[in-house]
Design brief:
The complex is a heterodimer of chains A (about 70) and B (about 950). Chain A is mainly α and about 70 residues long. Helices cover about 75% and strands about 0% of the residues of chain A. Chain A contains four helices and no strands. Chain B is an alpha/beta fold. Chain B has five domains: about 80 residues, Ubiquitin-like (UB roll), CATH 3.10.20.740; about 130 residues, Alpha-Beta Plaits (2-Layer Sandwich), CATH 3.30.70.20; about 230 residues, Rossmann fold (3-Layer(aba) Sandwich); about 200 residues, Dimethylsulfoxide Reductase, domain 2 (3-Layer(aba) Sandwich); about 130 residues, Barwin-like endoglucanases (Beta Barrel). Chain B is about 30% helix and about 15% strand. Chain B is built from 29 helices and 37 strands. A seven-stranded mixed beta sheet of chain B has the order 14-13-28-27-26-15-16, covered by helices on one side. In chain B, a hairpin with a 6-residue loop joins strand 3 and strand 4. The chains are: A mainly alpha (about 70), B alpha/beta (about 950). At the A-B interface, helix 1, helix 2 and helix 3 of A face helix 22 of B. The complex binds iron/sulfur cluster (SF4) (3 copies) and FE2/S2 (inorganic) cluster. FE2/S2 (inorganic) cluster (FES) binds next to loops of chain B.
């Protein structure tokens, strides 16, 4: 793990992986909600501003959803 | 107030539904059925002379001093072993009894060195008191015959001595060690006149025996045969103040027995509901750090961390600190500032630190060391049950039929609770231990686990799922409970998931390494063995699936109906004394006190109105995120109260880099700890003996901490935080922690009924204390879950990303031992080092042999993150492929090797799983030597001008 973006991507994927058992739609919602509730705004902004490369499908879905609803930047 | 020892009723209290009335010396007395005549007499103020009885132990009936006459009984009878009966008529004082007692007493005294005037127990000795009570005036037998005088004392234990010539062989010590502590270290050697108390084998002394130095025997001893060395050194105490231990989450209460400003001894308080008169070596004896020469009592500052420290006045230190904080805020904004609260500090201190960060700094970047221990408990229990706390009180274990211990080592980390648990196990409760190591509980005197599941580290979720599989597929779930109390649809989803064949014990055996048959048997016992209670520790939480395991445990308890009454429940064993309190007080960056999310506008408004400021509605940074953000440059100033994150947090190099990148690190502590190597400001702290406040233990019990001596630095810790707030212009004016507690109660619904006055009256309260639970709640979720319906969460096992391979073939797991506490800042500065002078690496004989390592050899312990060196201990307590160490000593810095991996939901570090290699080594690693140099440099204090 090196660099903040990589670390955030790792964290988002890890969250997504643990929600995956709920099925993709629910997991995307749960991952987005978790990041919304527990991440500091600079972390959310950084992951939303970064490339999606490296994000799992669920994590990418969650970040896309956050981009739609949050954009606190 | 003149010194009085605590009242002793002779035999233990009995609880019974039926009451019995009898007459003692003409007085009518009513007591519960089963009470001894001795206790009944003591309860109505008529103490009967005794020597072998004390109310912490079952009656023994050996000294024959407590004889009484009972109408209708021939002769005399021992009052300690005689239970009361309805309408019994008892006489405790008759000429015959007097004569008998004097005769017995004379025999005792004739073999006792009558050096009372110079004895350290003078005026605090039951033998002396009893001799006076029975009116012994002369002794007919001289010392000419055989006697026990002149025997050498055993001084090996650092805290207490054993003087055999003062021993009256009442065996109270032996019974205390058996019944109260459960260690069975003592025995009576030989018989009759030759009988003698012995710590183990003939050659053993106390220190080398199995004795764990809990002090129970010392407390039970009626003479000075077993006596605290501190009493010998300082004299008899002259007053006692009730206070709460500042070490672990059991929260034992003690009488701090004082002579002037000198603490003479800490004696466990019999009325303490957490400890019921018992203690462990830490709380009982390890308080010497309070006066250790390393303690810093003057504020210090420095421009940069390569400079020596400069001692300054409080005013200068606070002005310097406020200047730096304000500069960072002006240049980088409020979110560049943050603070860390401590689970070792009081609720009031913690509350003030988070208030300073939220209301003063203007960010929500506040976190607590619970991040690195029990944050998954917070997340997991809040999600499933609705609140972040254990469900039971400690007494509940006495109603448990099956006790499951998962990833916890209570005999080392929660010793007083472990003694209660062992007492219940000796009574016949069954034990299941789920732990990679064969912890002491698995097999100890008179205790043997029914099942030990030695799982592969990192596979907790798989083991829990496999147990659930057995319970559901064998029809052992309590569906009536689930239908009534939980969400039935969610339960069915969960039941379907766990029933799948890939979750069977057989299938999962490949990853868990737990034999399927053993796991099945354990699951059946948990589901069908009666009241089943789960106790868990950091072996559950400190994993990349820590939160998932907590939820999986909650699922098991709900599925089997083991929630909501005495004897059952889900019980996190908290590490530090105030982990529960620190979490309750709003120390997490996303939550205000009482676990209410910062984004909740109504809650925020309450605080905003009370504090008169607007609060940031967004969650702040957690500790690891703070360090990342510091390296990125967006986080620049940190106030750390009572924590040593450099030593306690994972991946030491990363922590060091984060700290080194900041403009202002403020360490508020007793000692120049490891984190202070990177600090610009050092604010001296006060010990728990020097301040008032409250701690909340693992059973949600709020208990007062009382100031017994003046502060060494001039300010209690809450006053230091207040002074810093005021240097920033906040205008706080608390004059006593009671006012802070009032503010907490005003702003926190679960604390609504808590106040200092009430704690003074009632000694302790278990939250919630509010309109619904006016007297608190020993057991939670009795009629319904806090969140309404219990929530089943499907938890899918994911292997950790930390993998073993050819370069790092072993798994390292970390833990604690009894005599040391956390990073050891306190216990290393006491005589407890006699038991644990250094961290060692436990390694299985096969792994040791493959590497050419023998007991005591130096070994290099390397992971992908870093390496260190330490000595090895070769033992089959750990399985092949697993190694284990503690992190109590900065010289070892076990966290140099732990990784950045953490719990998916809370970022609680994965301390329990690191892939490592172990190889022979000649001594400390380069890193250790470099670090020792850094520590020496950064601890320099500039000489005063003119020196
Ligand atoms: S100090 Fe505790 S463990 Fe040691 S002998 Fe006494 S009662 Fe037993
Ligand atoms: S050491 Fe004390 S408690 Fe133990 S047998 Fe002797 S007198 Fe009794
Ligand atoms: S068990 Fe814990 S609270 Fe009790 S004395 Fe020991 S360290 Fe203190
Ligand atoms: S106190 Fe009853 S026999 Fe000793």
């Amino acid at each position: 793990m090196s660099g903040t973006h990589d670390r955030l991507v790792y964290m988002a994927n890890q969250i997504a992986r643990n929600f995956a058992v709920q099925g993709e739609t629910a997991a995307i919602a749960a991952t987005a909600r978790h990041i919304h509730d527990f991440w500091d705004p600079r972390m959310r902004d950084a992951i939303m501003a970064g490339e999606d490369a490296g994000l799992s499908d669920i994590a990418a879905g969650a970040i896309a959803r956050l981009r739609g609803t949050l954009r606190s930047g | 107030m003149a010194y009085e020892p605590q009242a002793d009723f002779g035999t233990p209290e009995v609880r019974a539904d039926t009451q019995v009335t009898l007459t003692i010396d003409g007085r009518r007395v009513t007591v519960p059925e089963g009470t001894s005549v001795m206790r009944a007499a003591a309860e109505c103020g008529g103490a009967i002379p005794s020597l072998c009885a004390t109310d912490s132990l079952a009656a023994f009936g050996s000294c024959r001093l407590c004889l009484v006459e009972v109408d209708g009984m021939r002769g005399t009878t021992a009052s300690c072993t005689t239970p009361v009966a309805q309408d019994m008529i008892v006489r405790t004082q008759t000429p015959r009894l007097e004569k008998l007692r004097r005769g017995v007493m004379e025999l005792y005294i004739s073999d006792h060195p009558l050096d009372c005037l110079t004895c350290s127990a003078n005026n605090d000795c039951e033998l002396q008191d009893t001799a006076a009570e029975v009116g012994l005036r002369d002794v007919r037998y001289g010392y000419a015959g055989a006697h026990h005088l002149g025997q050498q004392p055993d001084l090996s234990n650092p805290y207490f001595l054993f003087a055999p010539d003062k021993c009256i062989v009442c065996s109270r010590c032996v019974r205390a060690c058996d019944e109260v502590q459960g260690t069975l270290a003592l025995s009576v050697e030989a018989r009759g006149f030759a009988s003698k108390i012995s710590a183990g084998q003939r050659a053993d002394d106390f220190l080398s025996s199995d004795c764990v130095s809990c002090g129970a025997c010392v407390q039970a001893c009626p003479t000075s045969a077993l006596m605290e060395k501190s009493v010998k050194a300082h004299g008899k105490p002259e007053r006692a103040v009730i206070t709460t231990c500042a070490y672990c989450g059991v929260g034992c209460t003690f009488r701090a027995e004082m002579r002037g400003e000198q603490l003479v001894r800490m004696v466990p308080w019999k009325d303490g509901k957490a400890n019921r008169g018992h203690s462990c070596v830490k709380g009982r004896f390890a308080w010497g750090y309070a006066h250790h020469q390393d303690r810093i009592t003057t504020p210090m500052i420095r421009e940069s961390i390569d400079q020596p420290w400069r001692e300054v006045s409080w005013d200068e230190a606070l002005a310097f600190t406020a200047g730096r904080i304000s500069a960072v805020k002006a240049q980088h904004g409020a979110r560049a500032l943050g603070g860390i609260t401590s689970s070792r500090c009081t609720n009031e201190e913690t509350f003030l630190v988070q208030k300073l960060v939220r209301a003063g700094f203007g960010s929500n970047n506040v976190d607590t060391c619970a991040r690195v221990c029990h944050s998954p408990t917070g997340y997991g229990l809040k999600t499933t049950f609705g609140t972040s706390a254990g469900t039971q009180d400690f007494d509940s274990v006495m109603d448990a039929d099956v006790i499951v211990v998962i990833g916890a080592n209570p005999t080392d980390a929660h010793p007083v609770f472990a003694s209660r648990m062992k007492r219940r196990l000796r009574q016949g409760a069954q034990l299941i231990v789920i732990d990679p190591r064969r912890i002491d509980l698995v097999r100890s005197p008179h205790v043997k686990a029914a099942h030990h599941l030695p799982l592969q580290p990192g596979t907790n979720v798989a083991v829990m799922t496999a147990m659930a599989h057995v319970i559901v597929t064998e029809g052992l779930a309590d569906e009536d409970f689930v239908r009534a109390r939980c969400d039935w649809d969610e339960y069915q989803d969960w039941a379907r998931f766990v029933s799948a064949s890939q979750h069977s014990p057989k299938f999962l055996e490949a990853v868990t390494k737990v034999p399927a048959a053993e796991l099945r048997a354990a699951a059946r016992l948990y589901a069908t063995g009666g009241n089943a209670a789960i106790y868990y520790g950091l072996g559950v939480t400190e994993h990349s699936q820590g939160s998932s395991t907590v939820m999986a445990i909650a699922n098991l308890a709900m599925a089997t109906g083991n929630i909501g009454r005495a004897g059952v429940g889900v019980n996190p064993l908290r590490g530090q004394n105030n982990v529960q309190g620190a979490c309750d007080m709003g120390s997490f960056p996303h939550e205000l006190s009482g676990y209410r999310h910062i984004s909740d506008a109504a809650t925020r408004r309450m605080f905003e109105q009370d504090w008169g400021v607007a609060l940031d509605p967004e969650p702040g940074l957690r500790i690891p995120n703070m360090l990342d953000a510091a390296i990125d440059g967006s986080f620049r100033a940190l106030y750390i109260q009572g924590e040593d994150i450099l030593q306690s947090d994972p991946n030491t190099r990363h922590v060091a880099a984060g700290l080194a990148a900041m403009d202002c690190v403020i360490v508020h502590d007793l000692f120049l700890n490891e984190t202070a190597n990177f600090a610009h400001v050092f604010l001296p702290g006060s010990t728990f003996l020097e301040k008032n406040g409250t701690f909340t233990n693992a059973e949600r019990r709020i208990q007062p901490v009382r100031k017994v001596m003046e502060t060494a630095n001039g300010l209690e810790d809450w006053q230091v935080t207040q002074a810093l707030a005021n240097a920033l212009g906040l205008g706080w004016a608390y004059t006593h922690p009671a006012q802070i507690l009032d503010e907490i109660a005003r702003l926190t619904p679960t604390f609504a009924g808590v106040s200092w006055d009430r704690l003074e009256r009632e000694a302790s309260l278990q939250w919630p204390v509010n309109d619904q639970f006016p007297d608190g709640a020993p057991v939670m979720h009795v009629d319904g879950f806090v969140r309404g319906k219990g929530h089943f969460v499907v938890t899918d096992y994911m292997p950790t990303d930390e993998k073993t391979g050819p370069r790092y073939p072993l798994l390292l797991t970390t833990g604690r031992i009894l005599s040391q506490y956390n990073v050891g800042a306190q216990t290393r500065r006491t005589a407890n080092t006699a038991w644990h002078p250094e961290d060692v690496l436990e390694i299985h004989p096969l792994d040791a042999e493959n590497r050419g390592l023998k007991e005591g050899d130096w070994a290099r312990l390397a992971s992908r993150t870093g390496e260190t060196s330490l000595r090895v201990s070769v033992t089959d307590r750990v399985a092949p492929g697993v190694v284990y160490t503690t992190f109590h000593h900065p010289e070892t810095q076990a966290n140099v090797v732990t990784t950045d991996y953490s719990d998916w939901a809370t970022n609680c570090p994965e301390y329990k799983v690191t892939a490592v290699q172990v190889t022979p080594s000649n001594g400390p690693s380069d890193w250790q030597e470099d670090y020792a140099g850094l520590t020496a440099r950064s601890r320099r204090i500039a000489a005063e001008p003119g020196e």
